[in-house]
Fold this protein.
Amino acid sequence: MGKAYSMDLRDRVQAEIASGQSRRAAARRYEVSPSFAVKLADRVSRTGSAAPARQGRPPGGGKLAAHLKALLEWVEAKTDITMPELAAKLKAERGVTAHPASLSRLLLKAGLSFKKNTAGLGSRARGRSPGA
């Protein structure tokens, strides 16, 4: 993902435009694209701020978020369930197709981890809470 221009540069380009220069002339002077200057001026006129918008998708969404409770229950019921088995069960019972890696990431974020014991057998267990 790209990085937003600094507020200093944004303010200088906006000041140039506000002083009467064209958007393209301001872009040439500060060596930014004309598109940036046009979009910046539009943003300032709409919001009153030159600050960049938030990048990326908001956290907590996604198609699996609605099924997290069921997934956790299935894992608690059968602690040695594999991700492909979990994906197949989700498809059969809920009609939702998900890649096993996506399920693994979701369960890791939910605090589950896969640990092997001394016998070499694996089981899922609740780990530390995220952020702790």
